[in-house]
Specification:
By secondary structure, the chain is mainly β. The chain folds into 2 domains: 182 residues, no CATH class; 94 residues, Sandwich (Immunoglobulin-like). Helices cover 4% and strands 46% of the residues. The strands form 5 sheets. Strands 1, 2, 3, 4, 7, 10, 11, 12 and 13 form a 9-stranded antiparallel β-sheet that branches. A hairpin with a 5-residue loop joins strand 21 and strand 22. The termini are far apart. 23% of the residues are buried.
């Protein structure tokens, strides 16, 4: 059975790209429901060098892709994680002029693809979507939201995209972590929680397929913890964060990010609670 028609778009996910000290890592992929359409046009140019009255050398540069991603509604999580919007104490989503848009990996699959190929673009940069609406008429036509995107080569590897078929290694976990070329998979099984003033350090146990690895950095909500507040045991595959450091955080939800020397980064949801 051949691939002739791409019927639709499904299984769209995004994973925020983090760069720390020149090391690129990817957050845990987040599903984007309601994806409608994806258009990608190849970007680059044809370079010709003339000598001896002829084309002496010719090559095509690969600058990635440019296009649009159309969704039924851009999720609030995407607006906050990628577009940089913030949620205030009242639950309002705030867009600020100093907002910094983040790069993300875009993962997707085409509905009706006979081989069920899954795709990832490694470094995608979005523009802010337009704000549109119209008055109600005697017919109802669903409105969608569209963002312009550009997909560039990854900073560290130069890879633009990857595709996996059903029988390829990594296909079954494709939407669990961003696929990296010949890279191991890192994971954490459980979310984390800490009770303030408990005197108990937080121990996170992780798994990795790597034969040798290191933890390059540990972050909470994007800020490096560092120093004596973190202890890493690569033999036991544990990361310990001191209770005194966690006690400086107010009660609420945070995200711990483990950045590995090889393979994907891992985000661990953290709940900080006050003592009963």
């Amino acid at each position: 059975m051949s691939n002739k028609i791409k019927y639709g778009l499904k299984n769209v996910h995004y994973a925020v790209v983090t760069e720390v000290g020149g090391v690129v890592s990817y957050g845990v992929p987040v599903s984007v429901p309601g994806a409608v359409n994806l258009v990608l046009n190849a970007a680059g140019e044809n370079v010709k060098f003339y000598a001896d009255d002829t084309i002496y050398h010719e090559e095509n540069t690969n600058s990635g892709y440019e296009g649009t991603l159309e969704m039924a509604l851009i999720p609030d999580a995407f607006r906050c994680d990628v577009l940089g919007d913030e949620v205030d104490d009242n639950g309002a989503i705030i867009e600020n002029k100093d907002t910094k848009v983040k790069n993300f990996a875009l993962m997707f699959e085409f509905d009706g693809d006979a081989k069920k190929v899954r795709h990832v673009l490694y470094r995608v940069f979005p523009t802010r979507p337009n704000l549109e609406s119209s008055t109600t008429t005697n017919t109802k036509e669903p409105k969608t939201e569209t963002i312009n995107i550009s997909a560039k080569p990854a900073i560290d590897t130069g890879d633009v995209r990857a595709r996996l078929k059903q029988d390829d290694t990594g296909y079954s976990t494709f939407f669990t972590s961003v696929y990296e070329k010949n890279a191991p998979t890192n994971a954490v099984a459980l979310d984390a929680e800490h009770t303030k003033a408990s005197g108990i350090d937080l121990v996170i146990t992780y798994t990795t397929d790597a034969t040798t690895h290191a933890i390059k950095d540990v972050l909470i909500d994007g800020l490096s913890i560092g120093g004596v507040n973190v202890t890493v045991d690569t033999s036991a595959k544990t990361v310990t964060i001191s209770d005194t450091y966690l006690d400086t955080y107010g009660a609420g939800d945070y995200v711990i990010t483990l950045i590995f020397s090889v393979g994907n980064a891992v985000n661990v949801p953290l709940e900080v609670k006050t003592a009963a």
